[in-house]
Structures are given as C-alpha cells and as structure tokens.
Amino acid sequence: xxxxxxxxxxxxxxxxxxxxxxxxxxxxxxxxxxxxxxxxxxxxxxxxxxxxxxxxxxxxxxxxxxxxxxxxxxxxxxxxxxxxxxxxxxxxxxxxxxxxxxxxxxxxxxxxxxxxxxxxxxxxxxxxxxxxxxxxxxxxxxxxxxxxxxxxxxxxxxxxxxxxxxxxxxxxxxxxxxxxxxxxxxxxxxxxxxxxxxxxxxxxxxxxxxxxxxxxxxxxxxxxxxxxxxxxxxxxxxxxx
Length: 241
Hints:
This protein is of the alpha/beta class. The chain has helices spanning 18-24, 29-49, 69-85, 87-92, 108-121, 137-153, 164-169, 215-226; strands at residues 10-14, 54-61, 96-100, 128-135, 180-183, 202-204, 230-232, 235-237. The strands form 2 sheets. A 6-stranded parallel sheet has the order 3-4-2-1-5-6, with helices on both faces. A two-stranded antiparallel ribbon has the order 7-8.
C-alpha cells in the first residue's frame, strides 16, 4: 500500500476533542485526556510503519494554562507519568523524541523528564516525535526573533544570513516543513499550531474526536492527502515527499 501512496514526510496532529469525548460518555474530562494519550501511543507506531518520518502533536498550548487548575495539574501529571511509563516504548521502537515550546512555567520534574527522554533518544533515526508542550506558534516566532537578534549582536551572523531557511533552522526544533496537518473533532482552525512550518501544508479536519482517531482513521486521512494537488506558489507537487 505504501508503494502506491504518497506518504507525507512530516505530519502534524492537533489532538482535539478529548474533553468532549469524555463528556459524551458521562465521564470526567480527565478520562478523555487519558484515552487520548493511550490512542496516541498506538498511532505513533502505525504512523511510523506507514513511512512518515516526522510527527508533531499539539499536546498542550501556552493558552491551556488558563484552564481550571485541576485540569492543568492533571495534564501535567499525565504527561509526566506517560513519558516515564513509556520510556522503554520509545527506546524499543527507536523513536527520537523532541519537544517544542517554552520551558517556563513547567515544573522541574517535567523538565527533567523531557531532558532525559531527549538525551536518550537523540541518536535514533526512526520516527522523530515532536511533542508541542507549552507551545504557541506566535511565541515561537517571537523567541526565534530574539535568538537571532542575540546572534547578530554577538557577531555570529550577518543580516544577509537571515532568510526563510535560516529562520526554519532556528525555531524551537530544526524540523522539515509540515506536509499534512490534521485537526480532529471538526473544528476548523489551527489554534496557533506551527504556523511558520505549515505555510504550504495540506489540512484535514475530520469530525471524529481524537480518542477515536485510530489507525483506520489515519489511513482515511492518507487517502485524502493523496487526492490533494499540492502547490507551492503555483508550482505543482505530484511526487512522493
């Protein structure tokens, strides 16, 4: 099947609908977040098996800190426990894990967990799994601009060194541009997710809530991607990525 399909090199998923999934079942919203985390683990393997090289997921935005404290605390603890529990999963499947986002105000235990998994998986050449945590694309562009200004002040670069590729390489993570962005739950917006990287991405907005966005749903998404005629400023792209 993979030989017949164009496989996107870099897929982004906005994992929306966990809370609504739980509410529809008369459960606490936290149960939906747990179901979403369980689903993501299965999806990682399936997506890697399809030949995708980079997967970015929107785990927690900077704006999510405005939610109820109990829900924020649960999500932080869930993230901490999942990364620790699934440490062997990433190692066994040779998944390189990186993070995009601001480190403040994340707790020390969360930061240490992030640093540990990045260090231990940095040499893997399988799927690169980019977890956007405490992330907002507008803040990423601001932080990148500050970083480049500091480089210029230090005499490390010249103004003519700054071009779109240079900016791409100096974002939170140096990853290829997004090819395909999926937002589950039917919401039709990007919500500040990887705006620079998604300049020429294709978008897909299935109505299914993320805990139910399983392997079959991802395969449906791939079929949608394959029916798109990708264009880059008027230039068509009809070959595999």
